[in-house]
Amino acid sequence: MFAPTISTTQTEGRLFVVKGLALCVVRDERGLRAPMGPAGDAIVIGTLDGQACFARGLAEGETPAGTELVSLRQLFGGLSDDEFGVAGRALGLVAWDRDHRFCGRCGAPTERSATERMRVCTRCGFHAYPRLSPAVICLVERDGKVLLARNARANMPFFSVLAGFVEVGETLEQCVAREIREEAGIEVKEIHYFGSQPWPFTNSLMIGFTAQWAAGELNPDDGEIAEPGWFEPGKLPTVPPKLSIARELIDDFVKRHA
Questions:
Q1: Which residues of 140-165 are buried (b: 16+ CB within 10 A; e: fewer)?
Q2: What is the Cα–Cα distance from 214 to 186, expressed in whole angstroms?
Q3: For residue 207, which of 133, 138, 136 has the smallest C-alpha distance?
Q4: Rounded distance, CA 138 to CA 143, Å?
Q5: How does pLDDT run across 168-217, given as a tens digit for each residue?
Q6: What's the distance, CA 204 to chain centroid?
Q7: Of 8, 139, 148, 238, whose Cβ has the fewest other Cβ atoms within 10 Å?
């Protein structure tokens, strides 16, 4: 079981060494896993099954001995669920630590706090905490069919439910209605919370909803989505793999209409 913390007396443990959206892993007869090693100046993430977990970025030209760099998306199902979750946390914390080495207010260097998960400016004392970008993702139903579309900006073959980032001053439900209106040209009603998932691609918190079609016909924003349509549960196109809350929403829809 994973327990988050910002400090530990252990000086070595599982090392989650990341570069971009990839992780250095060991591949052996036991499968894939994060390597063990000394902590050095790595970020303390927490403990997993009693072992300390640390995160740090990969220096240019470096690869820890006996490891290989693998995209985190490709590691889903290869790492244990707990270890995959820790890896996602590592990606976000390494990016935060790197991006806030200097104060965004006065430009002076910052340093890590010993008591909180934050970096503190050495000149003006400004606190920089890890930030998450909340995003909604919603499965819309109409007469027993689900609205699915492809992402027009990504070279992905699968169809998924619609999503978008929350704007300042917006409730989550308002964001759902706005995103569906902007992307698909329809109105929705009966917006209900489904669940949430931390999403490291990148630093987002995905908040899932279901909704019912209320009015309008599909009029997609071509810059956002492609090939939108209403699909029956037994005639779905290619959908996302079992990695994201998008697939959880789709699987739930199929189960309810089986």
A1: bbeeebbbbbbeeeeeeebbbbbbbe
A2: 7
A3: 136
A4: 16
A5: 999 999 999 999 999 999 999 999 999 999 988 778 999 999 999 999 99
A6: 5
A7: 238
SS3 208: strand
Nearest to 166 by CA among 132, 129, 192: 132
Burial class (CB in 10 A: 0-12, 13-18, 19+), 215: exposed
Q: Which amino acid is at 141?
A: E
Distance CA 16, CA 7 (A): 16
Say how many residues make up the chain.
Answer: 258
Confirm if 72 and 22 have CB atoms less than 8 A apart: yes
- End-to-end C-alpha distance for the chain, whole angstroms: 34
Q: In 3D, which of 258, 219, 253, 257 has the Cα closest to residue 137?
A: 253
The pTM score is 0.87
Residue 147 near residue 162 (C-beta atoms within 8 A): yes
- CA 61, CA 24: separation in Å to the nearest integer? 13
